[in-house]
Amino acid sequence: MTVVSNPILPGCHPDPTICRVGEDYYLVTSTFEYLPGLPVFRSRDLVDWEVVGHVIDRPGMLDLEGIRSSGGLYAPTLRHHDGRFWLLCTLVDQEDDARGGNFVVTAENPSGPWSDPVWLDVDGIDPSVFFDDDGRIWVHGTRPARQPEWHDQTEVWLRELDPHTMTLEAEEHVLWRGAVQGAVWAEGPHLYRVAGAYHLLAAEGGTDFHHAISVARADAVTGPYRGSKGNPVLTHRNLGRGVDITAVGHADLVEAPDGSWWAVLLGMRPYGGYHCNLGRETFLVPVVWEDGWPVFAPGIGRVEHEVEVPFAQPRAAAPVGGIIASSDPRWTSVRALPSEIAAADGDGWVLPLLPATLADATRSAFLGVRQQHRDVDVTATIACDLREGEEAGLVVRQSEDDHVRLSAIGVTGEGTRVVAIHRSAGTERVIGEAVVAGAPHEDLVLMLRARGQDYELRAGRSGDDLVAVATADGRTLDSIATGGFLGLWIGVHGTSNGAATDSTMRVERVEYVPR
Known about the structure:
Elements: E1 2-5, E2 17-21, E3 24-28, E4 34-35, E5 37-43, E6 50-56, E7 72-81, E8 84-92, E9 101-107, E10 118-120, E11 125-131, E12 137-144, E13 154-162, E14 167-168, E15 173-176, E16 187-194, E17 197-204, E18 212-218, E19 226-227, E20 234-235, E21 246-255, E22 261-268, E23 281-290, E24 293-296, E25 306-309, E26 322-323, E27 333-334, H1 338-341, E28 343-345, E29 348-352, E30 365-370, E31 376-384, E32 391-397, E33 403-412, E34 415-424, E35 427-437, E36 444-451, E37 454-460, E38 467-473, H2 479-482, E39 489-495, E40 504-514
Antiparallel strand pairs: 1-25, 2-3, 3-5, 4-27, 5-6, 7-8, 8-9, 9-10, 11-12, 12-13, 13-14, 13-15, 16-17, 17-18, 18-19, 18-20, 21-22, 22-23, 23-24, 26-40, 28-29, 29-40, 30-39, 31-36, 31-40, 32-33, 32-39, 33-34, 34-35, 36-37, 37-38
């Protein structure tokens, strides 16, 4: 018996969806305003995952320009049928409902290329697809209830899909409005057929502390559905805010080759109080079927930090981290592909400065990776020749309104001036500054030393002479404090602060070392 660690995907990997093809499992998570979008992970044992591609990975597939943080790509569903992978997803534009919507893409190979999006003429979020044994294809999703009994009540709808025209039939069925009276946001629906019955899995309660998983069952795909007497079948809200894993929900089921069943789901790990800097992560629990109903984490009834996976191979010690090469699939940018704003240069990048700042809801000169560990050192070695008014450096990003920058902003007679700026709720303040001796063209080393909720920022010319510039409070940066749905990203940025420029920043290397 192999005992493995939860979460199986640490850092901001919410809304997991999974399917199995032969011996391989494939999993996709939400990415919001970050591109490339919707990473496709592959595993042989549900434990060790590698990125084999991204669904949204080429210019022009989707336009995210102007979409604010925590908008963008929500809650995908991944399925495989008749030799093709199908993925349904929602593009959310909080400022312009007309631009968002639900779409479907397909691919023969999960690593791509994926087709251009085909838009579905239906409102709401969290679309899913079910392929029935009779060949019919059913799309379902969530929307605000047409006749709500309470605020934020939603309903799960179902319509048949014509696979030739990729259009939905007019006839509609409303399947579910949630298991608990007064519960909000019955969402993330998925349909399965097990032992001849149709099972509808859904989350409800909102994707935070009150999150929960509920299930309903019917003899026909169109219903009527009746809920399990055990609903919610999994939640941590009864454990209080001091629990080590919270907000569990948004699950998807998969059957292993040995006949066992498993669920992937999201959850958060608070630390330093009820703060979740790593965001909503992907966890794994076993599932068994009793009396025709799924039982999550049997005998335990909760998500734990360790899970037994009988068919998993013993895991070697995790790498301690190191240089994140430019070819690493963890690199993302906001509203643009990394290749659209920067050029790979060996293990590093050449990043042209752009007029846009991190406070603007547009593509900016930013490259980052998810924070996946509470204690971590991230070091960026950069070189730049800045003009007046320009800045370049290291950033911890939550959103346009909330982030921390450690930036070179110019030179003095003594060296490069480095300033730490905390932008909180849209207001910026300087929290520290220093002058790093040396010529402006020399490499500048900028470092984040995260220890729990202390985000210490350091600067120097080499790793041996770094000086502390400031310490930011991580409790002001997570989504609990700021709103939204994201964990933190750590990366490099550059801006001319609105002016035309041809300045560039050379990112010699970025190192990510868990501690």
